[in-house]
Every structure is written in C-alpha cells, then in structure tokens.
C-alpha cells in the first residue's frame, strides 16, 4: 500500500514538472535502454538537455520508485565533470571552461531490485542549470521473467500451470498426436478413445488382424487357420482371412498337335482343362505370294492374283497371274455377229471375221461362191439365160407398138379408140 502511495505522488510531481518545463526556455528529456525490465537486470537512462547555453555548474535531483536502485552516473560531454551522492539522490556537475550543452549530458545506471513490484516504475530528474529549473521523467515496466511449474490437468478438456515467481497462471487445451492417441503430449492426461478398426483382414505369413485406420493399432490378432492342402490348381488358404498359405502345385504343359490360328499366325494351346496356356504365336509360312494355304497349320488365306494380259487359243481365253502363272478368268470365246472381210461372188469365196467381245480374239469363216440356181430343176443355166433374153426382146417390142398406136390416135381426134 505504501509503494502505491509513493507511485501516485511521483506521478503528480511528474505532471507538475512537465507543466513547468513547457513554459521554461530550456528543456530536458530521458531515454532508456529498455522500457521493459526484469528483476535483477540493469537499466541505462540517458538525460538530454537543450536550450540552456553555456554551463559552468549545475545540479540534478534524482527521484525514482522503490523497485529501482540508483547505482551510478557518468558524463556524456567532454569537459563536464560530475559528482554525486547516491544516498542523497543528488548530482553536481560543472565545467571549468563553461561548455555549451545541447544534447546528451548524463548517463545514469539503475538496477532492478529482486523484490521489485511487477508494475510501472517512474524516474524523475530535476535540473537546475544557470539558475533555470527544468525536469524530465520516464516510466519503465518491471516484468516477470516467468518460470512456470509443471502442467497439470484441469479435466477432460484443458490443463494449466503457474509461474513460480509471480504466480501468473496459463491454461491450454489438451494436445494429442492423432484421434487414437490416449495421452496428452503436454500434461500426460489419459483419455478414453475408440479405434476405427477396418472390417477387412490384414495378414502376413504369420497371422491376421484388423487394422485401425487412424493409428495402425491391431485387433483380433491371431495365427492362420489352414484350409485344404494345395492342389494342382488350388491354393491352400487360411479359413479365416483367405491368406494364401501355399500356392497351387501347378502342372507341366502338354500342347495339342493341332494349331490354333488367325490371319496373323498360329500357335498351340495346352490341353490342360484349367490351363489355357498357349505357345508364342508364329507367322504363317507360304510358298509364294499367291499361295493360299500355310505350310505349317493349313490356315487358308484370301489372296488377290495380279492379272496379266489376255491369252487365248481357238476354243477359249484366259489371263495369267504375274506372280504365280495361275490361269484367271478362263472361259469360252463370246463371238460377236462378225463382219464381211471379203465379199463372195461367182469367181471367188468370201471371208467373214468374228471377234470375241471379251478378249478380242478373231476367227475367220469362208463365205461360198455365188451360183445360178435351177428353179425348174432340169434346164441348164445357159438355156434359162436364152429364154430370159428372148422374153426381154418381146417385151421391149410390145412397149414400142403401144407408144406408136397411142400417138396415131391422138393425131386423129384427140381420143384413143379401142
């Protein structure tokens, strides 16, 4: 209570001094090495003055709170000598040459007492220089360099500890490495947890268990329970987790004599009923580009011959493949109606030419000589020629007679008479 009263009085004095300093011509100020100090630490306070001119002598009254202890002072100006009384809280300074001061003047050293209150502590310097009074003040905070004790649980949610120096307490929430961690990393509080075990079994060669998906803890861990012995195609399994304890014994492949094939090649397949293993596919083997059947497996492929020019004989025509000489499109000639190359007459035979419309092959056919036919069936040809000539003479004579008679009748009366 006494210390609080002293602090209040110092604060009032500080306000009054500051009010006076505002109106004075000179001024002073204080700067400290730290605004926050700890018990047992050292504090440096530099006093700065300005506007006081040349100084031959002066004094300073030093006032401070009980949490501090003044331990010394030094001059910050060459030529200014200091003398001080720690027990009286007074400093005398002087200069033989009357030094002009405008800046740092004194540096005071304080020690923070080990029993100092953890509160603000004030320092006031009252200067009397050349008959002028000025003052300056500052406040520093004595803080605790906390030394906390061990954390202790406050229940299911938090923990706390206190400073062994000032008694200040701190609290915090429990911290765990993961959802399945049972122990608080800070205070050691133990909690109840529920693991998240998977439904599926996890196993190795020695046994099986259920894994917690959060922390990896194991549940229901046990050795394998062997099932039926391994067979040719069946594994031996654990009856609980289905772990393969022994693999199937396997078998020796026996390949069929016949080939399986497709357009790309052929292969053989193991005759085992549950195997189906096949040999590596091999390419087909043909005698030439036009060979249809693989020499090894008998696979028949579709081929396309390469047509050559038409060839023919008297009865048929065909084309020959340029790759394998096979006959293609072979067939009988398809003759057109033909054309007369040489006309037949009484003196010679004619020639008719026929052309195959597919391969353009040609054949010739003889046209017989022309001859006089015998309609009566008994007279020679020259007799018929004479008869024809006589008939022609008679017909011509008749025509002339008619013309002459018609002309005579016209002259006699213009009418024809019977």
What is shown here, in short?
By secondary structure, this protein is mainly beta. It is built from two helices and 26 strands. The protein is 13% helix and 36% strand.
Can you lay out the helices and strands and say which pair or pack?
Elements: H1 2-23, E1 27-32, E2 36-38, E3 42-50, E4 54-64, E5 68-75, E6 80-85, E7 90-100, E8 103-112, E9 120-129, E10 132-143, E11 152-153, E12 158-162, E13 169-173, E14 202-203, E15 207-211, E16 218-223, E17 236-237, E18 244-246, E19 260-262, E20 265-267, E21 310-312, E22 316-320, E23 327-332, E24 339-342, E25 350-355, E26 362-367, H2 381-413
Parallel strand pairs: 2-10
Antiparallel strand pairs: 1-3, 3-8, 4-7, 4-9, 5-8, 6-7, 9-10, 11-12, 12-13, 14-15, 15-16, 17-18, 19-20, 21-22, 22-23, 24-25, 25-26
Number of strands: 26
The share of residues in helices is: 10-25%
Mean pLDDT: 84
Alpha-beta content class = mainly beta
Shape: elongated
Strand fraction equals 35-45%
Radius of gyration: 71 Å
Helix and strand element order: HEEEEEEEEEEEEEEEEEEEEEEEEEEH
**Low-confidence parts:** 1-6, 8-24, 408-418
The biggest beta sheet is recorded as: 6 strands, mixed
Count of individual helical segments: 2
Sheet with most strands: strand arrangement: 2-10-9-4-7-6
Distance between the termini: 195 Å
Oligomer: single chain
């Amino acid at each position: 209570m006494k210390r609080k009263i002293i602090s209040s009085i110092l604060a009032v004095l500080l306000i009054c001094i500051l009010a006076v300093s505002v109106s004075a011509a000179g001024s002073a100020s204080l700067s400290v090495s730290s605004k926050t100090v700890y018990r047992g630490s050292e504090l440096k306070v530099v006093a700065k003055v300005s506007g006081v001119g040349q100084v031959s002598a002066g004094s300073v009254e030093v006032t401070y709170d009980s949490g501090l202890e003044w331990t010394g002072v030094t001059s910050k100006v060459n030529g200014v000598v200091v003398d001080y009384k720690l027990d009286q809280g007074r400093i005398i300074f002087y200069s033989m040459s009357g030094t002009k001061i405008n800046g740092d003047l004194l540096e005071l050293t304080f020690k923070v007492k080990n029993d100092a209150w953890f509160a603000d502590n004030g320092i006031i310097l009252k200067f009397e220089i050349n008959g002028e009074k000025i003052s300056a003040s500052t406040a520093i905070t004595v803080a605790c360099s906390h030394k906390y004790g061990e954390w202790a649980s406050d229940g299911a949610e938090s923990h706390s500890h206190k400073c062994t120096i000032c008694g200040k307490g701190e609290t915090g929430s429990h911290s765990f490495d993961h959802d399945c961690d049972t122990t608080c990393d800070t205070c050691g509080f133990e909690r109840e947890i529920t693991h998240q075990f998977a439904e599926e079994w996890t196993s190795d060669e020695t046994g099986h268990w259920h894994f917690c998906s959060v922390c990896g803890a194991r549940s229901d861990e046990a050795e394998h329970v062997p099932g039926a012995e391994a067979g040719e195609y069946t594994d031996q399994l654990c009856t609980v987790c289905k772990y393969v304890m022994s693999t199937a014994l396997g078998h020796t492949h026996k390949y069929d004599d016949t080939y399986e094939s497709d357009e790309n090649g052929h292969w053989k397949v193991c005759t085992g009923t549950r195997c189906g293993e096949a040999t590596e596919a091999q390419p087909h083997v043909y005698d030439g580009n036009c060979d249809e059947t693989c020499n090894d497996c008998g696979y028949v492929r579709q081929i396309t011959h390469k047509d050559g020019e038409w060839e023919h004989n008297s009865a048929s025509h065909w084309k020959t493949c340029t790759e394998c000489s096979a006959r293609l499109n072979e067939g009988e000639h398809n003759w057109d109606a033909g054309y007369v190359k040489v006309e037949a007459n009484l003196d010679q035979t004619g020639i008719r030419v026929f052309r195959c419309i597919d391969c353009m092959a040609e054949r010739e056919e003889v046209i017989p000589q022309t001859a006089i036919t015998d309609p009566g069936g008994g007279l020679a040809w020259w007799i018929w020629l004479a008869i024809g000539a006589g008939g022609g003479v008679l017909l011509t004579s008749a025509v002339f007679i008619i013309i002459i008679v018609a002309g005579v009748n016209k002259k006699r009366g213009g009418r024809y008479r019977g």
